[in-house]
Amino acid sequence: MKKFYEAKEKNLNMLKQYIPVVARVHGGAHPEFYDVAKVFGNVLDKLDDTSIEILNLSEEFKSIREITNNYSVPDDVCESYEAVYVMIDELDKAYHS
Predict the structure, then answer these.
(1) What count of Cα atoms within 13 Å lies in the side-chain half-sphere of residue 41?
(2) Within the chain, what is the greatest distance between any pair of CA atoms?
(3) What's the predicted TM-score (pTM) here?
(4) Which of 11, 23, 61, 65 could form a disulfide with 87 if both were Cys (CB 3.0 to 4.6 A apart)?
């Protein structure tokens, strides 16, 4: 879990900033991003819930991988969209390592 918490520290604040902007800019053409934002919101809720003794994010990351086709970035999006997928993928891999 150490790798996950390091990746969380590195990426979480940026993801909180980027996700709403990317959803606003690209959500119309890529409505699946709204699903990514919603599921990632569940991840954030679990991370903020101090009553959770054992953090289990397996289903959330599995769902995001399915929605994004394993973090495949569409051809017609900006670097911020790609950055969101890269950062979530990094969290996913760190969580599962």
Answers:
(1) 9
(2) 41
(3) 0.94
(4) 11
49 φ/ψ sector (left φ>0, alpha ψ -120 to 50, else beta): beta
The pLDDT averaged over each successive group of 10 residues in the chain (97 residues) is 93 97 97 98 95 95 98 96 98 96
Read out DSSP for 22-74? Answer: HHHHHTTT-THHHHHHHHHHHHHHHHH-TT-SS---HHHHHHHHHHHTTTPPP
At residue 1, the pLDDT reads 83
Report residue 92 as tokens: 């996913």
C-alpha radius of gyration, the chain, whole number: 13
Name the residue with tokens 């289990």.
56
Contact between 79 and 20 (Cβ < 8 Å): no
The number of beta carbons lying within 10 Å of the beta carbon of residue 14 is 13
